[in-house]
Amino acid sequence: MNQAVNNTTRMAAEILEHGVKQYLALQQNKGLLRFLTCGSVDDGKSTLIGRLLHDSAQIYEDQLASLKSDSAKMGTTGEAIDLALLVDGLQAEREQGITIDVAYRYFSSEKRKFIIADTPGHEQYTRNMATGASTCDLAVILVDARYGVQTQTKRHAFIASLLGLRHFVVAVNKMDLVGFDEKIFNQIQADFADFVKDFGDLDIHYVPLSALNGDNVVNRSSQSDWYTGGTLLELLETIDTQRELSELPVRFPVQYVLRPNLDFRGFSGTLSSGVLKVGDEVVALPSNKRSKVERIVTFDGDLAEAVAGQAVTITLEDEIDISRGDLLAKPESAPSLANHIVADLVWMDEKPLQIGQLYDVKVAGKKTQAVVSEIEYITDVNTLERSAATSLSLNTIARVKLDLTETVVLDAYSLVRDTGGMILIDRLSNATVAAVMVVDGYQGQKQVSNEFSPFELEFNALVRKHYPHWNARDISLLGK
Ligand SMILES: Nc1nc2c(ncn2[C@@H]2O[C@H](COP(=O)(O)OP(=O)(O)OP(=O)(O)O)[C@@H](O)[C@H]2O)c(=O)[nH]1
C-alpha cells in the first residue's frame, strides 16, 4: 500500500469533513501521550517503532523509497523492508561518539498524539533512561519472546517505576519465532508480574506481537486468537494517564507573574495536578495567604476550570504577594513544608557525589541549595540488592538524606511528580548532576548555609582575574 497517499487521503478526508479550522482544532485537542520505549539490545525496539510509524501511515513516500533501497543494501530482513533502519540513524551517531541522551519522535493516530522517548538500552545509560522517563506517562518494555524476562527488563522496570511511571505495556516481541505460543506469553506475563509485585500500584498491560511482521502492533494478528486484549496502538490510544492527574490535589507552581498594566496581575504556569475552578479557595505557599480564584485566563479566552496539564494564567480576588516559584494549592490538601528530605536519587555526573558539598536545587520552578548529608544505601539495579556507600558514581541509584538551605513546598514524588521531583545542579559547572525523587520531608532546625567559604571566594576571584577566557562565573553573585 502506498503509505504517503494513505496518509494524505486521511488528512484530506478529515479536512473535507470538518473544514480546515476545525481540523486544526481537532489536531490541537487530541490528547497527548508521552511514552518511553526500553528493552535489551536486539529485542526489536527500532523495528517496533518503525512498524508503529509505518502502519499508522506516518512515513512519506520519499522515506519509503530510500528505506527500500537501504534495506536491500544493509538491512537484516532479506527482501522485506527493514523498519529498524528508520530509527537507527541514532545508533550510527552513537557509534561515532556523539552524545545523544534521548531521541524524541513524534507521531499521531486518529485518536492521540504521541511523543516517544527512545532511550539507549545499555547498562551504562541509566542516566538517559531517567531523563526520558521523567517526562513520560507510560513505558513500553520490550521482551524477546525467546528469552523471556531478562536482567535488563528488570532494570528498566525498576528505574521506570522509581521515576514514577505507573502505566506499563510489556510488549512480548518476536512471537513469530515461538509460533505465537500462548504458554510462552503467559509465562513471561507471570514472571514480569512477580518481579514488580512490590513496586506499588501499577497498571500493566501485556501484548504478544511481531514487530517484524506487524502482528498486534497496529493491526490485529490472525495468529493469536487466544489473545483478547488490544493491539499495541489501541492500548497506547486508550490508556488514560490524564485522569489520574486530575484526581490528585491541586498543585499550581507559579512560573511567572504577569503584570502588563496596573489593572491586571496574573500568575502563569501549568497546573501540575488536580482541577482548579473559578471561585475555588486557594492558599499561596510558602506565605500561607488565602484568596479565591477570580479568573482563569488563556490565550483563547477565559475558562471556568483548568485541568492538570493546562497552561493558564490565574487571577485572584485579593492582592496577595506571590512570586515566581511559589505554589497555589487548596487549603484542605496543601503540601507540606520541608527543609530535610529523604529521597531516591539517580547520580548523573562523571564526577562522584560528595557528601556535604553544596549543590543548587530546582524544584517546581524554585531554586535553592542543598547538601546530601547521608547515603542510606545504594541499590544494585540488576538485583535490587542494597548496600552501603560513602560516595556515588555515575548512574548509581541511592536512597539519601538531603538538607536544604531554606524551607520549600514539597510532595512525595509518588504523589505529584512536579512538586516531588528535583534536580541537583553543580554550582560551578552548572551541569545537572542528579535527579531526585522525594520520599518524605520534614521541617527541622536549619543547619546548612549557602555561603561559599572565604577560600572558595578568593580562589574564584583569582581564577576570573587571571584566566578570563575560562569564563568562570562570579560565585559571589550566585543565589543573589
Ligand atoms: N523474527 C523477528 N525478528 C525481529 C522482530 N523484531 C525485530 N526483529 C529482528 O531483530 C533484530 C534486532 O532488531 P532491532 O529493531 O534492530 O532491535 P533493537 O532492540 O532496536 O536493537 P538495538 O537498536 O541494537 O538496541 C533485527 O534483525 C530485526 O529484524 C520480530 O518481531 N520477529
TrEMBL record:
Keywords: ATP-binding, GTP-binding, Nucleotide-binding, Nucleotidyltransferase, Transferase. It catalyses: sulfate + ATP + H(+) = adenosine 5'-phosphosulfate + diphosphate. GTP binds at residues 39-46, 118-122, 173-176. Residues 30-243 form the Tr-type G domain. SUPFAM superfamilies: EF-Tu/eEF-1alpha/eIF2-gamma C-terminal domain, P-loop containing nucleoside triphosphate hydrolases, Translation proteins. The keyword Nucleotidyltransferase applies. PROSITE patterns: G_TR_1, G_TR_2. With CysD forms the ATP sulfurylase (ATPS) that catalyzes the adenylation of sulfate producing adenosine 5'-phosphosulfate (APS) and diphosphate, the first enzymatic step in sulfur assimilation pathway. APS synthesis involves the formation of a high-energy phosphoric-sulfuric acid anhydride bond driven by GTP hydrolysis by CysN coupled to ATP hydrolysis by CysD. Heterodimer composed of CysD, the smaller subunit, and CysN. This is Sulfate adenylyltransferase subunit 1. It comes from Shewanella aestuarii. The lineage of its organism: Bacteria, Pseudomonadati, Pseudomonadota, Gammaproteobacteria, Alteromonadales.
